[in-house]
TrEMBL record:
<dbReference type="Pfam" id="PF01047">
    <property type="entry name" value="MarR"/>
</dbReference>
<dbReference type="InterPro" id="IPR036390">
    <property type="entry name" value="WH_DNA-bd_sf"/>
</dbReference>
<keyword id="KW-0238">DNA-binding</keyword>
<protein>
    <submittedName>
        <fullName>DNA-binding transcriptional regulator, MarR family</fullName>
    </submittedName>
</protein>
<feature type="domain" description="HTH marR-type">
    <location>
        <begin position="22"/>
        <end position="158"/>
    </location>
</feature>
<dbReference type="InterPro" id="IPR039422">
    <property type="entry name" value="MarR/SlyA-like"/>
</dbReference>
<dbReference type="GO" id="GO:0003700">
    <property type="term" value="F:DNA-binding transcription factor activity"/>
</dbReference>
<feature type="region of interest" description="Disordered">
    <location>
        <begin position="1"/>
        <end position="27"/>
    </location>
</feature>
<dbReference type="InterPro" id="IPR000835">
    <property type="entry name" value="HTH_MarR-typ"/>
</dbReference>
<dbReference type="GO" id="GO:0003677">
    <property type="term" value="F:DNA binding"/>
</dbReference>
<dbReference type="GO" id="GO:0006950">
    <property type="term" value="P:response to stress"/>
</dbReference>
<feature type="compositionally biased region" description="Basic and acidic residues">
    <location>
        <begin position="9"/>
        <end position="18"/>
    </location>
</feature>
<dbReference type="InterPro" id="IPR036388">
    <property type="entry name" value="WH-like_DNA-bd_sf"/>
</dbReference>
């Protein structure tokens, strides 16, 4: 069964016919996207987490590192999931030992989510290795090339972020 990134990779043949001058760059970008999706799938598999669960854990870890604990409501808004789905997701993360629930210090009705010490270390270990390797490659670029690539990626991001399948004007 092919995932969405793989299907996107198959669609890149259409881009070659439409944009021959940029086809190599677009193919490389598509290949990178597919590789990143596969890397995240391997990471999720090694931690026995689903995609949304890993993203939620990452948000909890980031909030904790910023000394700004996050609650279920805010986490649900970041993930775009309903309250019921958020409860089930948090239950899974607590049961798997990745997250703990703690009482809010000033609102006895609210909870805060904290990463388990082992989870932070595990996720950071996997991500640090990835980021270190990526930083090595990025640092090999000249300042001019780095700016060109960054500008290109920002414009691509803007284009992708602006796509609304419900409004194709």
């Amino acid at each position: 069964m092919q995932d969405e990134a793989a299907q996107d990779g198959l669609r890149k043949a259409d881009d070659i016919e439409q944009r021959p001058a940029g086809s190599g760059l677009l193919n490389a970008l598509s290949d990178y996207g597919a590789s990143e999706v596969a890397m995240r799938r391997r990471m999720r598999g090694s931690m026995n987490l689903g995609e949304t669960d890993l993203l939620a854990l990452r948000y909890v870890i980031e909030a904790d590192a910023a000394n700004r604990p996050i609650g279920p409501k805010e986490l649900g808004q970041k993930l775009g999931v309903t309250s019921a789905s958020m409860t089930a997701l948090i239950d899974r993360l607590v049961k798997s030992g990745h997250v703990s629930r703690e009482p809010h210090p000033s609102d006895r009705r609210a909870l805060l989510l904290r990463p388990a010490p082992g989870s932070s270390k595990e996720v950071r270990g996997l991500m640090d290795l990835t980021h270190r390797r990526m930083a090595e490659i990025a640092s090999s670029l000249s300042p001019e090339d780095s700016k060109t690539v960054a500008d290109f990626l920002q414009r691509m991001r803007g284009t992708v972020d602006a796509i609304d399948p419900t409004n194709q004007d």
